[in-house]
Amino acid sequence: MPKILIIAGDATEDLEFFYPYQRMLEEGYETRVAAPSRKKLRFVVHDFVENFDTYIEREGHSWPSDLALSEVAPEEYAALVLPGGRAPEYLRNDSDYRRVVTHFFDEDKPVAHICHAAVTLAPLGVLKGRRTAAYPACAPDVAMGGGIFVDGAAVVDGKVVSARAWNDHPEWMRAFLEVLREHAPVKG
């Protein structure tokens, strides 16, 4: 059974973690969660309210990480999922995060990213020339990383599938599962 890696941290967007996590399990993939350290992570919920120029944040669910990023052998995984939230603000500074994520792009493995995860990819240079969605406020980060921002629900560029935010889940996961079924199918 192919293994999927999800990288999360404290303040990961609750819905952007749980929806793909549960979809990967439902599809039959062995799914592991990596974080800066092995611990119970605390997620957040971002919501949109009328007459507020940005989103608001509330406390979300908790979930344990299976392994620390330093323990990840990325060659053991068929695909990567990167949720958004505030966690990307500090995950991008973690050398093991950069090592693991770069592996998936260098090896042309399937990657799904959503929302603010794009701010972790831009400094790695993996967005250069690539069409990608992200939370619209991250469009300048995508451009600075050499990417082409697309305001879309499920942007597919090769084996990379991106989306703006949790509102795009159905389209995002449907497109990512098509990529996985072609490049990392569950046999059984």
From TrEMBL:
PANTHER family from the UniProt entry: DJ-1 PROTEIN, DJ-1_THIJ_PFPI FAMILY PROTEIN
A Pfam family it matches: DJ-1_PfpI
Single annotated GO MF: peptidase activity
Domain DJ-1/PfpI: 3-178
Official protein name in the record: Protease
GO BP terms: proteolysis
Keywords noted in UniProt: Hydrolase, Protease
Statement: the UniProt record of this protein carries the keyword Disulfide bond: no
Keyword Magnesium: no
Family: Belongs to the peptidase C56 family.
Provenance organism: Streptomyces angustmyceticus
InterPro entries reported for this sequence: C56_PfpI-like, Class_I_gatase-like, DJ-1/PfpI
Domain of life (superkingdom): Bacteria
